[in-house]
Amino acid sequence: MVRIGAHVSQDDPAAHAAEVGAEVVQFFLGDPQGYDKPVLPAKPVEGVDVYIHAPYLINVATTNNRIRIPSRKLLAQHLEAAAGLGAKGLIVHGGHVNKSDDPQVGFDNWRKVFERLECPIPVLIENTAGGGNAMARKLERIARLWDALDGFDVGFCLDTCHAHAGGEELVGLVDRVKAITGRIDLVHCNDSRDAFDSGADRHANLGAGSIDPELILAVCRAAGAPIVVETPAEGQAGDIAFLRKNL
Ligand SMILES: [Zn+2]
């Protein structure tokens, strides 16, 4: 049985894990909308597997130096802090380039990240639901990203809400992803409040959104990777119980 858990608040991840029955926790190290240095949780995180989610503002693909350069620095700082906590991986969104930019520049910028970065733990690039000219919304782009990262040890985090809202059918998705990346390190198991290919990133508890729960289960079974629900907190215990019962 794969390990199942939740994205929780960083104030006391182990206590939140116990509340929802999680064997795995994911949390931010500080404000996900800020460029601040990582802040470690106040209480030790013991007895659960840990994943750290990097701030949303990180965009290492962009051609804008004033975003890309601080993004690289922040990514390195969060990676080091996550490794210090014994985390199994650092999740970061694929990012995007400006509307008029050639996406290849963004893929090349990603390659430069790994040419310079020490990776004591794996970086897991996550697919995104939207973002104009995104690097990791559609599989065609993820394939080009993985071409650019050939030779580097890079992990993948598959988010079911983002795939659905981003316009990728969940049927057979794991096989199509693995054909590109060779691996799925973590599943972000979320329902989507919004319709297929809407481009909106609003997570829902399992069964409360627009995705057939059977499709979500099928993705989880096929991926065979640890699972984290990033769903509204009040329903997380139910989501985890649903997965345990049905997987
Ligand atoms: Zn996610």
UniProtKB/TrEMBL annotation:
Gene3D superfamilies: Divalent-metal-dependent TIM barrel enzymes (3.20.20.150). Keywords: DNA damage, DNA repair, Hydrolase, Metal-binding, Zinc. It holds the Pfam family AP_endonuc_2. It comes from the Bacteria. GO terms for molecular function: DNA binding; DNA-(apurinic or apyrimidinic site) endonuclease activity; phosphoric diester hydrolase activity; zinc ion binding. Its cofactor is Zn(2+). One of its GO terms (biological process) is base-excision repair. Residues 16-244 form the Xylose isomerase-like TIM barrel domain. InterPro entries: AP_endonuc_2, AP_endonuc_F2_Zn_BS, Xyl_isomerase-like_sf, Xyl_isomerase-like_TIM-brl. Belongs to the AP endonuclease 2 family. NCBIfam families: PRK01060.1-3. This is Deoxyribonuclease IV. The lineage of its organism: Bacteria, Bacillati, Actinomycetota, Actinomycetes, Streptosporangiales. The gene is nfo.
